[in-house]
Write a structure and sequence with these properties.
Shape: globular
Distance between the termini: 47 Å
Helix content: 40-55%
Number of domains: 2
Strand content: 5-15%
CATH superfamily of the largest domain: Glucose-6-phosphate isomerase like protein, domain 1
Mean pLDDT: 93
Radius of gyration: 20 Å
Number of helices: 13
CATH architecture of the largest domain: 3-Layer(aba) Sandwich
């Protein structure tokens, strides 16, 4: 395992522990293979819509899975934040349809997470079942909602991050869901998990110092770009950097193609650009064209290349090239990309003389959301 720097901050420990958490998460899902299979057999058929939900970072897991789950044979899938279910449930649920609601929750105590389950039950009655993936065995989602139509998966206690920012909780819940929805093949995935562990260790030990140097640059904005499931990873990266810097760095995310349609106006000479490149060669052509065009129009303060393999982007020069996937490709490699946002966020927080574990000096944001009244 990569050596963890001597520091009192929980956040960096929670970032560095992720490869081990991924191995432990795999073992938890493997041990529950029979229970998961029986639950899916009982509650899922071709008429079932799977709703993926959570708030903030937890909701981004669903945005990623929308692109992943068709690979496992699930096409009727929607990612809907608990915040939207709470306010507009009638736009989400039809009482005559069949659903599985998958709730992602670090603490399991967020008001909207609890409300989403209650609202879904009140509308759908016997037409809904629940999968709860959480990092807290003592959360209300576990304690108050353990019923016959629930599958509850509790991840290693260390994934219940103590820091404000979700790090190991995010990546471990994402991995758990990828294993869950392909549970029939879970026994054969150990080699892929072992490779993911090694790649995570390599990423952290090889690139942390270089990312720290990039974080010390005087950028005021950051834009993260990804395509398909990597757009959801870009979404998580943008939030990590923005919340860990208490909004002092304003961040955006988009797809490479989507950036052209207006958001590119935000890029200036004080912008850090982070490209999460696709492994698909056809998709990469679209991404490369955007990079070349952008560099012809503006000179950002720095650019980071993150990819599973090195490919040409013309004459564009990158300030950092992150290539963590020199070992065999695995289906889980997209998870690795989140490390760039987490590490940038941590080191930029330090650079700005903030407390990464509690960067919000004014209390604008908190580890578990506060001030929400459910009506």
């Amino acid at each position: 395992m990569a050596s963890i720097q001597t520091t009192s901050f929980d956040t960096i420990h929670e970032i560095y522990q992720q490869p081990e958490m991924w191995r432990q998460t795999y073992q938890i899902l493997l041990d529950k293979e029979k229970e998961i299979s029986e639950f899916m057999t009982s509650h899922y058929n071709e008429e079932t819509t799977i709703i993926l939900t959570g708030a903030g970072t937890s909701s981004f897991i669903g945005n990623i899975l929308e692109f992943v789950m068709p690979k496992y044979g699930f096409y009727s899938v929607k990612s809907v934040p608990t915040t939207d279910i709470t306010t507009h449930p009638e736009a989400i649920f039809n009482k005559n349809k069949k659903y599985i609601l998958v709730s992602f929750a670090r603490s399991g105590n967020s008001p909207e997470s609890l409300a989403a389950v209650n609202i879904a039950d009140s509308i759908c009655h016997n037409n809904i079942a629940h999968i709860i993936i959480t990092c807290n065995e003592n959360g209300k989602l576990v304690k108050e909602y353990a019923e016959d139509n629930r599958l509850i998966l509790i991840l290693p206690p260390e994934t219940n991050d103590k820091g404000l920012a979700m790090t190991s909780s995010f990546s471990s819940m994402l991995l758990a869901s990828m294993l869950l929805f392909d549970v029939k093949k879970i026994v054969n995935k150990k080699e892929g998990i072992d490779n993911l562990y090694k790649k995570g260790e390599y990423f952290i030990s090889t690139y942390s110092d270089q990312i720290k140097k990039i974080a010390a640059l005087d950028f005021e904005r950051a834009v993260f770009l990804g395509t398909g499931e990597l757009k959801g990873i870009a979404e998580e990266c943008h939030l990590k950097l923005q919340e860990l810097t208490d909004g002092k760095v304003v961040c955006l995310f988009d797809s490479f193609l989507g950036l052209r349609h207006g958001p590119k106006a935000a890029i200036n000479e004080k912008t850090l650009l982070v490209y999460l490149f696709s492994n698909d060669d056809k998709v990469f052509q679209y991404e490369r064209d955007l990079v070349v065009q952008t560099n012809q129009q503006v000179k950002p303060i720095a650019q980071i290349y993150v990819s599973q393999k090195k490919r040409s982007t013309g004459n564009v020069v990158f300030d950092l090239e992150v290539l963590p996937d020199r070992m065999n490709f695995t289906e889980f490699d997209a998870i690795l990309y989140v490390l760039i946002g987490q590490l940038l966020g941590f080191y930029k927080s330090i650079d700005l003389k903030l407390d990464p574990d509690n960067p919000s000096a004014s209390g604008k944001i908190a580890r578990v959301v506060e001030g929400v009244i459910i009506y």
